[in-house]
Amino acid sequence: MEWKEVDPEQEDWEKQIDIVAYYGSITVGSIVYCGEEIGWQSVIDGHMNFMQAESLEDAKREMIDMLEEHCTDQINYYHDLQDSLEELNDREV
């Protein structure tokens, strides 16, 4: 994975830094700076969230924490889904 500064996707973003996975150049998430009044925001799976960060370095650290939580939530969701499918399969047999 690497940080990659890119041209902002939206006009009201002053700066955009993506986290890109090496394989397939997949963008995992983005940090965007929306000016002094709004500050830094994260973008994960198309959802924006405000960040407490006051600098790019703070935003990077906060984004890593947010992505770790997001990935854990996704893993738990799919484990629950898998358990539900197994239960459904057991009832159908």
In short:
The chain is an alpha+beta fold.
What is the strand and helix layout of this fold?
Blueprint: E1 2-6, E2 15-21, E3 26-33, E4 40-44, E5 47-50, H1 56-92
Antiparallel strand pairs: 1-2, 2-3, 3-4, 4-5
Q: What does the model show?
A:
- The chain has one helix at residues 56-92, and strands spanning 2-6, 15-21, 26-33, 40-44, 47-50.
- Helix content is 40%, strand content 31%.
- The relative contact order is 0.12.
- It is of the alpha+beta class and 93 residues long.
- The chain has a 5-stranded antiparallel beta sheet, covered by helices on one side.
- The N and C termini lie far apart (44 Å).
- The model has no long low-confidence stretch (mean pLDDT 93).
Shape category: elongated
Low-confidence stretches: none
**How would you characterize the largest beta sheet?**
5 strands, antiparallel
Indicate the percent of residues in helices: 25-40%
**SSE topology string:** EEEEEH
Number of beta strands: 5
- Beta-strand share of residues: 25-35%
Derived structural class? alpha+beta
Question: What are the defining features of this structure?
Answer:
93 residues, elongated
